[in-house]
Design a protein that fits this description.
Number of strands: 21
Shape: elongated
Number of helices: 11
Structural class: alpha+beta
Radius of gyration: 29 Å
Distance between the termini: 73 Å
Helix content: 10-25%
Strand content: 25-35%
């Protein structure tokens, strides 16, 4: 193994799988080049018997399969210095056409991208480093998964930091927005200077995880228009703050007289490990409450992020008094007799009630766990994911039920609310998943359209 070749950083050469030949990657800022340069690349590849020529994800052209003894000569023929395709440095500045060419561009990605490339390409840092510049929010240069990303908006540049794809992907965090070209360039400079002081060979995202994005902003001198402390209002209860409390989405089931029922719940938590005990909050008006009180048992089935909204609506916005919620659903009865849901579920727990606490309209049941198992691997659906990605709401009987903000701004048309689940249809947002484009007035929605949360017909909506 000692005779195997390695990357030649001094010659901008990356050893290939055969451990004998190399690939070089001529530096083409933003992938822009002239016909003359393309001819030079093609001629050099042919002259030195390259195995192939490949367009790379970093907007470069790799010449693959070059012998080590030909490396100096091929760079000389290209008329270029060895490019920094590998190593602990800024390896690439990727940018889209921006306003220079693209009809969707909001900012000049080419102009600022060229400046960043000139300033930082091959700039040595504690770890590899990538920059992406996107002229609009479509982020064609993948700015959100770059160490530093610039994203063009109508108000200026949004600068994000700490992203990477790699084996453990990270989405960048917003550092500042609404910046001019000069302000964006200055902020990039300050971020890179701060990162250069970081002696550990880790990506920028790791630094941000260590120090925190807020602390980093203060270090960089990033100021908001209004100080955070001045924004805090202690004279009211802002229910939106509750959304940051970590909940999940579960089906809580129980049984009475041999009949099983289940409902959606989001307030479930383990309260002890010896003996293993779990608690759930259930509305006193619900059938599931009556079943738990009667049988003294309950099950908790933990939903995955992929759970479809109609499935959630079946258990969350219908009453077991009116319909059999388990019809057509795969489930089995546990050792307590409570139903364990199989469809869309990652794992389950079933328990016997050992105590209860009355909490207003709800009762918190504490149960000693009788059995538990994992059904499949996946990500459990969080309360935040249900709201932000699924656009879900809670029924009025849920312990975390919030009144919708009916003063939310809309660019056109009237706002309508679902009388069953409380979902708000805003014309400005539309319902893209349901085939309704943003900007569509409610009256223009087809009559067969259904509420994306609970599945009821359009006729169940009322104007707010």
């Amino acid at each position: 193994m000692s005779g195997k070749k390695r990357d030649r950083l001094d010659k901008g050469a990356i050893v290939q799988r055969d451990r004998e030949t190399f690939a070089i990657v001529p530096h083409l800022p933003g992938g822009l080049c002239s016909p003359e340069i393309l001819h030079k690349i093609a001629d050099a590849a042919k002259k030195y018997n390259a195995a192939t020529i490949k367009a790379t994800g970093a907007q470069r052209i790799a010449i693959v399969g070059i012998k080590e003894e030909d490396l100096d000569n091929i760079w000389q023929d290209l008329g270029m210095k060895p490019a920094a395709a590998v190593g602990m440095c800024v390896r690439s500045v990727k940018f889209c056409p921006g306003t220079a060419f693209c009809r969707l561009g909001q900012q000049d990605a080419v102009g600022i991208g060229m400046k960043l490339d000139e300033l930082y390409h091959a700039y040595e840092l504690p770890s590899k480093f990538k920059i992406g510049v996107s002229g609009c929010t479509n982020s064609c240069s993948e700015s959100w998964v770059k160490d530093i990303g610039l994203i063009g908006t109508k108000k200026g540049w949004k600068v994000v930091a700490g992203g990477n794809a790699a084996s453990r992907p990270m989405i960048a965090q917003v550092v500042a927005d609404g910046l001019t070209d000069d302000e964006a360039l200055d902020l990039v400079k300050r971020i890179i200077e701060r990162f250069k002081k970081y002696t550990k060979p880790m990506r920028l995202g790791k630094l941000i995880l260590e120090v925190g994005i807020d602390a980093l902003k203060r270090e960089l001198g990033v100021k908001t228009k209004i100080a955070v402390s001045e924004k805090i209002d202690i004279s009211k209860i802002n229910e939106k703050s509750f959304f940051n409390i970590n909940y999940g989405l579960y089906i809580v089931g129980s049984v009475k007289d041999g009949k099983s029922n289940g409902q959606i719940a989001n307030t479930v938590f383990q309260v002890s490990d010896d003996p293993p005990t779990i608690a759930v909050s259930i509305n006193k008006k619900n059938l599931t409450y009556e079943n738990i009180k009667d049988s003294g048992v309950f099950s908790i089935s933990i939903l995955s992020e992929e759970t479809p909204m109609p499935f959630i609506a079946n258990f969350g916005f219908k009453s077991g008094r009116d319909t059999n919620k388990l019809e057509g659903i795969e489930y089995k009865s546990g050792i307590t007799g409570a139903p364990i849901i199989i469809d869309n579920v990652l794992s389950f727990v079933e328990a016997k009630v050992v105590g209860e606490i009355s909490a207003g309209f709800h009762t918190i049941f504490m149960g000693q766990i009788q059995s538990a198992d994992v059904i499949k691997q996946g990500k459990p659906m969080s309360y935040a994911y249900y709201h932000k990605v699924k656009k879900g709401t809670e029924p009025p009987g849920a312990p975390t039920h919030r009144k919708e903000d009916l003063n939310k701004k809309t660019t056109t048309g009237d706002i309508y609310r679902c009388e069953v689940c409380g979902y708000i249809y805003d014309p400005a947002e539309g319902d893209p998943d349901g085939g309704i484009e943003p900007g569509t007035d409610f009256k223009d929605i087809p009559d067969n359209w259904e509420c994306p949360v609970c599945g009821v017909k359009k006729s169940n909506f009322v104007k707010v």
